[in-house]
């Protein structure tokens, strides 16, 4: 009986972790999809949005995972707390990796737009 109760708790904890992780990844993906959409233009002088604002928004998703750690710890659901700590670490790593890759793409896109439009004497906009 005690073993069955423990199995049920593990299933619930895994379900909560997977559900929260899926929601967090979905928000993360939507944020960076929004950044990508800013580059869809037929205008050769268009260079999209700088990625800093999108990186900041994706860091909020990692902060939400950290808040979930605190809530789970308050309810003494250690499995969920550990799972959310791992998810927060992964999201934090992805946010910084995506931000640095996006910054390189942004600079390249700005340079291409610069050469297409002849405004090359202007420096690239600040991050």
Structural summary, described in words:
It is a single chain. The chain has 127 residues and is an all-alpha fold. Helix 1 (2-37) packs parallel to helix 3 and helix 2 runs antiparallel to helix 3 (78-117). The relative contact order is 0.15. The chain has helices at residues 2-37, 52-74, 78-117.
Quickly list its features.
3 helices, 78% helix, mainly alpha, 127 residues
Give the topology.
Layout: H1 2-37, H2 52-74, H3 78-117
Helix pairs in contact: 1-2, 1-3, 2-3
The fraction of residues assigned to DSSP E strands is: under 5%
Distance between the ends: 59 Å
**Rg of Cα set:** 20 Å
Number of helical segments? Answer: 3
Helicity, in percent? over 70%
Short synopsis of the structure:
The chain is mainly alpha-helical.
